[in-house]
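Supplementary Methods. Inverse-folding protocol.

Structures were first reduced to a discrete structure-token string of length 164. This string, shown here, constituted the complete conditioning input.
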């Protein structure tokens, strides 16, 4: 079943839905993807996704704050990502990728993360389900490590993962 949506156009059908666009988030261009099985689409979920896309800068800031909050514990994916970056990259590569310096290396790396991609999963509407997944990189030409943050339908970060 297809749904016509004001923002996404016609989505859905027997083969599922895939929609992609590049949007601006601050001074970055971010690939935004919507993916779902055709039978799982609901117009209200598409409305939520469209709203999140229009407020992507605010969501990005919230996700980055969640990363900072994770620094309090050494075993978190954010702390592991930072350790991996500092272990695998040369100091010059880190310096070249840092956009703003404050004197706190970990905060500087988090502030310098590049939001590469956001994938919306409008079929995931339950609590603690990944409605959107934000994918971040640091020095992407030098490292394959990614920090992923899953956001629920209410824009709350429900999971952070390290992908390397």
């Amino acid at each position: 079943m297809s749904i016509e949506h004001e923002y996404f156009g016609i989505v859905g059908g027997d083969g599922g839905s895939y929609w992609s666009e590049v949007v601006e988030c601050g001074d970055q261009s971010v690939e935004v993807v919507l993916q779902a099985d055709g039978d799982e689409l609901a117009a209200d979920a598409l409305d939520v996704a469209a709203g999140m896309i229009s407020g992507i800068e605010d969501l990005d800031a919230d996700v980055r704050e969640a990363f900072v909050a994770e620094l309090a514990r050494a075993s978190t994916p954010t702390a592991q990502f930072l350790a991996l970056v500092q272990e695998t990259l040369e100091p010059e590569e880190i310096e070249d990728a840092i956009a703003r310096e404050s004197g706190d290396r970990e905060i500087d790396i988090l502030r310098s993360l590049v939001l590469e991609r956001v994938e919306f999963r409008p079929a995931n509407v339950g609590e603690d389900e990944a409605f959107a997944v934000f994918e971040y990189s640091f020095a992407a030409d030098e490292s394959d490590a990614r920090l992923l943050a899953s956001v629920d339908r209410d824009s709350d970060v429900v999971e952070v993962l390290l992908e390397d």
